[in-house]
Design goal:
Number of strands: 13
Structural class: alpha/beta
Strand content: 5-15%
Strand order of the largest sheet: 2-8-7-6-5-3-4
Bound molecules: pyridoxal-5'-phosphate
Radius of gyration: 23 Å
């Protein structure tokens, strides 16, 4: 028998440490607040960590711009330009050119605006095509837009064949002469399936429809390439991989050559050609500014910029490359340690079709999730019916954390920690 020294194979903690030492983005972790070094935070796909710089920016805006300068801040601090300025920075992360992305409102609200604008731009067409991997709020919004426009309007929800992969073929079949919009989440919130954006957009266009993408689970983690892919409309949130903070405002994209034709259905004064003339009738501002509605939430918008700056500094290609390395690594660990304990892979196996989280299923998924949070100091999140989502945020997630999280996922099952948690007695968070 040969003696095995400290285990140094590809499935060892030592190897994870080596991957971290070789990681070109490793230094970015120090730019975030890490309050508890033992806590493995794998929920950056729901709420990104706090960048250290954000606390300073928010402090400055509160103390100096608001506290000292009061109403003068609107002019001196360029508060009214924030939505475009930070929007353009987000645009660089998603392949948009300047003037195509603004920060405003929530994702759901922005979606409502662009869906109605898109439908009204194609009045002879009455159908929206989407899929059942989409975020439920998106489906609610698509339906309510149709309801408002009249009874001929409807949403066709194409079912995924397996709950993991997008129904690419069936969507193509559904795109017809009545379709005004193809509206999809680029990265699916449960399985992390990523659509081929240029391909699906081209299919929509060849049916005469517009393509609308929700980038909430893509922005800051996945290469999107809106302009190159000829996308028409997009929305997304800033509190996930962009690290903008709880409830930070969302963004909205309208392709340059559509901006003159599409109309914002919620015509508030900040989207007016000259808001401070207080005219009694509405004239839309030129370009994307016409998609603004009300007074911007300055504190919330200011909190978005430092997280976006970190991603720009790291380079979105580098971020995506690390995300793929890390999710591949996690899948290797799943095969070795977790599959034998009953965990199933509920995300695409192909890295190119997978975003930055991995969903694992387990019959005891809910109890495992509670045990991880309450006893094992891992924060994943949970999506019905049995998905444990493990979010990888390449700017701060380490390979060692992924390795250790997998060990704790083992502990939860081997020691039957899940038994303590009574699903009926607790609210799912
Ligand atoms: C997170 C998320 C949203 C969030 O919408 P809000 O209006 O910002 O609450 C919307 N769509 C998708 C696909 C999401 O993942």
């Amino acid at each position: 028998m040969t003696m095995v020294g400290p285990f140094t194979g590809p499935l060892s903690a030592e190897h994870a440490g080596q991957l971290d030492r070789d990681d070109p983005l490793a230094a970015f972790r120090q730019r975030f607040v890490i309050d508890d070094p033992d806590l493995i935070y794998l929920d950056g796909n729901s709420l990104g960590r706090l960048p250290k710089a954000t606390a300073e920016v928010v402090q400055r805006v509160v103390d100096r711009e608001w506290g000292q300068r009061l109403i003068r801040g609107w002019n001196e601090s360029w508060w009214l330009k924030l939505q475009q300025r930070i929007g353009d920075k987000i645009g660089r992360l998603i392949g948009a050119s300047a003037g195509e992305t603004i920060v405003a409102d929530s994702t759901s609200l922005n979606l409502f605006k662009v869906v109605l604008a898109g439908l009204q731009a194609k009045p002879e067409r009455k159908k929206i095509v989407t899929d059942d991997l989409n975020f439920p709020s998106d489906l609610y919004i698509l339906n309510s837009a149709c309801r408002l426009l009249g009874s001929q309007y409807h949403v066709e929800v194409i079912p995924s064949p397996d709950g993991v992969h997008g129904p690419v073929e069936a969507i193509q079949d559904a795109l017809d002469g009545d379709t005004a919009l193809l509206a999809l989440s680029h990265t699916a919130f449960k399985s992390a399936y990523v659509y081929d954006l240029p391909f699906m957009t081209e299919r929509a266009h060849s049916a005469g429809a517009l393509a609308l993408w929700d980038l909430s689970h893509s922005a800051g983690a996945v290469l999107v390439g809106l302009d190159d892919g000829q996308a028409d409309l997009a929305v997304g949130c800033s509190y996930k991989y962009l690290n903008g903070g709880p409830g930070s405002l969302a963004f909205l994209y309208v392709r340059h050559n559509l901006q003159a034709d599409l109309q914002n259905p919620i015509t508030g004064w900040i989207g007016h050609q000259s808001p401070f003339d207080f005219e009694l009738s509405y004239r839309a501002a030129d370009g994307l500014a016409g998609f603004l509605t009300g007074t911007p939430a300055v504190l919330s918008i200011a909190s978005i910029e430092p997280g976006v700056d970190l991603l720009l500094e790291a380079g979105i290609e580098e971020v995506r490359a690390k995300s793929m390395r890390q999710s591949e690594y996690l899948i290797r660990l799943w095969e070795a340690f977790l599959a034998p304990l009953g965990y199933t892979l509920n995300s695409p196996a192909a890295a190119a079709r997978r975003g930055s989280h991995i969903s694992l299923g387990h019959p005891q998924g809910w109890g495992i999730d509670r045990a991880l949070i309450e006893e094992l100091n891992v924060i994943p999140d949970f999506r019905q019916p049995d998905n444990i989502r493990l979010g990888i945020a390449p700017l701060y997630t380490t390979f060692s954390e992924i390795f250790e999280a997998v060990q704790r996922l083992c502990t939860a099952v081997v020691e039957k920690r899940y038994l303590k948690y009574d699903r009926a007695a607790e609210e799912v968070t």
